[in-house]
Design brief:
This protein is mainly alpha-helical. It has 17 helices and no strands.
Length: 406
Amino acid sequence: MKRFHYAWVICLACLWMYLCYVGLLSNLLTIYLPFIEATGISHSAGSAILSIRSLFSFLSTILAGWYFQKLSLRTGILIGALIGTASAVIFSIGGGPFVYYIAAALAGIGYGFSSVYPASILLANWFHIRRGLAFGISASGSGLAYLVFSPLLSRIILSSSLTKAFLAQAAFLAVSGLAVYLVVRDYPEDMGLRPYGEGRQEESARPTQRRAVPPLSPFLLGMLALIMLFVGGAGLSFSGHLSVLATTCGYAHELAAKVVSLFGFVLFASKMLAGGIADRIGPRNSSILFCVTFALGCAAVLGMNGINAFWYYVLAILLGIGAAICTVGPPLWAGELAPAEEYARTVKWLQVFYNLGGIVFNVVPGIIADRTGEYKTSFFLFAAMMLSALFLLLWAYRKQHSAQAC
């Protein structure tokens, strides 16, 4: 009988980080946004909340390497969690765009210091094999947040108030941050252990670093930056506008909450499976599968007419499948395209430009909606961005493999 390895506890802790600080703190702003806009702010001001959140995620990711060197991973995650808690408290106060912008800035810092970057480093430290599966399980936490909390938060808002929903979120974030701090250790050596799978091979698992690869050239680093601008612009923008897409198409808030919950369920399952799929067919091939599915999901807006909800459900299902690549893909791309000694720096590079994509593009749907009164056009833009990212990614794989052959 195989002995249980503590690496899987770390994996579950990372799942909880994704649930709290990607899902609740960032992605589920889509649930709040229609109600925030109903207080009297414009579509552009509402989209600006998402852009400010992305701006401060971008800035905190730039500082993440220095920050975690000074504090350690577990301490840095705890402080980021407390900053995220403060964000929810300030959101509960409300009172106009300026207050929401301050809260969004703190949400961005909490996201940057308590989610994707530290989770990626933790998983790389603790897993020698089955990293794809570990990344997939962890990233599924953000989908689980949609599934569990979107109907719950909508119910609290509709039956009570926006303020109480944010305060309930703040309490949950605070308790979760403390729990993660108590469980997480930066390295297996801190507990007298070795990384999962080190020193042995399993036929069913492929090592993350399958081949020696050369350092990334400046050209390839620039290409990866552009890829992540597109992935971040599409991935961070579409989720924040799922609810307002429905309401501007004429669907009720209650239906929007149900469909967002369905989206969360599919995203949860998709992320859970995406890492395992990548372990089997490779990150490159799995990226093709998920990016094309994402684009097809965006195209489903053509059928949304405010009466028949069928195409809204189709959109949610396909986007739930395709969007898994936005969080599962980057750490796996870093593992394949960069040498092991550059892994942490490459993950940081990808996250910086992922969040920059959100800064640049999050406000675009609101601007388009203020001019046209609809959000459908933005979803065609998201599809074009994701397909462009896929084309550039395949080119990056070809260039790096050619460099290796030389």
